[in-house]
């Protein structure tokens, strides 16, 4: 358990700032010899209050405040300039608007609820529902259950992907405010035109009711889902959030696509320990079946980033120990039904064999990573070592090996541990080199303490056109 994917949130900071952070990450990867993937988080149609003076703004309950698209005005307790001219057309009297810093701390003293009182031309007059002090240069604005007529992938987002994203060959795009399957299709089409990012995976970030309404179609198109509970908790009544989380994670599990949950230990931004409710929440997310936990303010500006990751890692490990994976396996097999696809059949057979012989680890040879992800979909009780076999490809100008993308992208999948094979020994060529790569994988398992003498190991690999599942019993 630990840091597996680094998310670079382009809502904050410029490309130079993020590049400096990425260079630090590369240095850490080199010194620790641990893989870490890179995710670019788009801004999307995010509404913001612009506070150029950066002076703290105090708002008092029952007073009125005007939201105006005139960004030339200074932000005060009477007027708040916003970056969207269409708000007056989107809202009506009685609608709820939320303004807060760092994607909603949830604190009633640093975030404010507003109720739309009237619309005057392009201005929106609101009644303040709670006293609060807003501090900083930007505050996020969220209009509850209101359709915002802005593109999901903005021109600024496209520019960031074409420059910073291409330059750094990013592994994932986190598509903020995904509302329709078409949003994912458009992003995929845009990436396909950028040769270096044709393999980049798209994770749809579900942040409002509109995204939840079209969840099934979005899931079909996306490579994974991020449930942005900060925003969902504002768009939905609080008592409904858990229901949508459980339903969405279950659907991701059955589709074999990673589910990521956000906003879990907000209190650790300023405190060394999480609350009891937060600790339970993390454990329940694991028991629900989520693949990864995404941290925000806790590691962006929090006082205890290392302790936060360590604490969450321990909670996740404890929850995984008591997960009923045998029941999960049976449930998944039943859900998939018959006839199974060829790959699905091989993956479930490998897991069934590993459970029956009490194998210590499953080793899967893969080039695209799909076979290993399918094995992980059945949540075996033992770790899955995904040995990614590099493939040689050419763009008519030069030859290059693929494999690094697929290895890093495995990091976000629960129970999957990638290992990149040596490209000088392509395992698909002969059985002899197949065996040598298997030895490397077994040695890696022994060195990391996963495999011991007399353990049984299940190996899933392709031999020619056939897929083979075999059981190995290790000698001394």
Please describe what this structure looks like.
Residues 2-309 form the Pyruvate kinase barrel domain. Residues 344-464 form the Pyruvate kinase C-terminal domain. Its EC number is 2.7.1.40. Belongs to the pyruvate kinase family. It is an enzyme of class 2 (transferase). The chain has 476 residues and is α/β, with parallel strands linked by helices. It folds into three domains: 5-45 and 150-263, Phosphoenolpyruvate-binding domains (TIM Barrel), CATH 3.20.20.60; 52-143, PK beta-barrel domain-like (M1 Pyruvate Kinase, Domain 3, Beta Barrel), CATH 2.40.33.10; 325-473, Pyruvate kinase, C-terminal domain (Pyruvate Kinase, Chain: A, domain 1), CATH 3.40.1380.20. Helices cover 37% and strands 24% of the residues. It contains 16 helices and 23 strands. It has helices spanning 15-32, 87-90, 155-167, 181-192, 209-213, 215-221, 229-235, 238-255, 276-288, 297-300, 305-321, 325-336, 342-356, 370-377, 404-409, 431-447, and strands at 5-9, 37-41, 47-50, 57-59, 64-68, 79-81, 96-100, 112-120, 123-128, 132-134, 138-143, 172-175, 201-206, 224-227, 259-262, 292-294, 361-366, 384-388, 391-394, 399-402, 416-420, 456-463, 466-473. Strands 1-2-12-13-14-15-16 form a seven-stranded parallel sheet. Helix 4 (181-192) runs parallel beside helix 6 and helix 13 packs across helix 14 (370-377). The two termini are 29 Å apart. Mean pLDDT is 89; it is low at 426-430.
């Amino acid at each position: 358990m630990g840091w597996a994917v680094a998310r670079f949130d382009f809502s904050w900071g410029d490309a130079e700032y993020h590049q400096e952070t990425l260079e630090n990450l590369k240095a850490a990867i080199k010194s620790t010899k641990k893989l870490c993937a890179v995710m670019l988080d788009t801004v999307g149609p995010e509404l913001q209050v612009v506070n150029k003076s950066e002076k703290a703004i105090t708002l008092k309950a029952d007073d009125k405040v005007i939201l105006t698209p005139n960004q030339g005005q200074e932000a005060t307790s009477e007027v708040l300039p916003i970056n969207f001219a269409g708000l007056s057309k989107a809202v009506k009297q009685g609608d709820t608007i939320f303004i807060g810093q760092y994607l909603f701390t949830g604190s009633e003293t640093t975030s404010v609820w507003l109720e739309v009182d009237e619309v005057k031309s392009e201005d929106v007059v609101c009644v303040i529902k709670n006293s609060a002090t807003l501090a900083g240069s930007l505050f996020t604005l969220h209009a509850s259950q209101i359709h915002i007529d802005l593109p999901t992938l903005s021109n600024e987002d496209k520019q960031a992907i074409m420059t910073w994203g291409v330059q750094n060959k990013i592994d994932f795009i986190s598509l903020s405010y995904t509302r329709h399957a078409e949003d994912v299709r458009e992003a995929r089409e845009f990436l396909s035109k950028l040769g270096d990012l044709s393999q980049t995976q798209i994770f749809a970030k579900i942040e409002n009711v509109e995204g939840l309404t079209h969840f099934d179609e979005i899931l079909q198109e996306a490579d994974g889902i991020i449930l942005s509970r900060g925003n969902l908790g504002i768009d939905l009544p609080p008592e409904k959030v858990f229901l949508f989380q459980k339903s969405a994670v279950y659907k991701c599990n059955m589709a074999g696509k990673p589910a990521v949950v956000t906003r879990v230990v907000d209190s650790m931004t300023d405190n060394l320990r999480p609350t009891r409710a937060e600790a339970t929440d993390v454990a329940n997310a694991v028991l629900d079946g989520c693949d990864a936990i995404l941290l925000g303010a806790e590691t962006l500006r929090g006082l205890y980033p290392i302790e936060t990751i360590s604490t969450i890692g321990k909670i996740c490990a404890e929850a995984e120990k008591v997960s009923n994976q045998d029941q999960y396996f049976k449930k998944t097999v039943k859900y998939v039904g018959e006839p199974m696809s060829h790959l699905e059949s091989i993956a479930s057979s490998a897991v069934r064999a590993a459970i029956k012989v009490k194998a210590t680890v499953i080793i899967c040879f893969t080039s695209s990573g799909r076979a290993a992800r399918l094995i992980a979909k059945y949540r075996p009780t033992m770790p899955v070592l995904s040995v990614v076999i590099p493939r040689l490809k050419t763009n008519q100008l030069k030859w290059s090996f693929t494999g690094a993308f697929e290895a890093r992208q495995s990091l976000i999948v629960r129970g999957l541990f990638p290992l990149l094979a040596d490209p000088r020994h392509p395992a698909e060529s002969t059985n002899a080199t197949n065996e040598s790569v298997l030895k490397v994988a077994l040695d890696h398992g022994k060195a990391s303490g996963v495999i011991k003498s007399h353990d049984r190991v299940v190996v899933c690999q392709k031999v020619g056109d056939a897929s083979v599942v075999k059981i190995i019993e290790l000698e001394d």
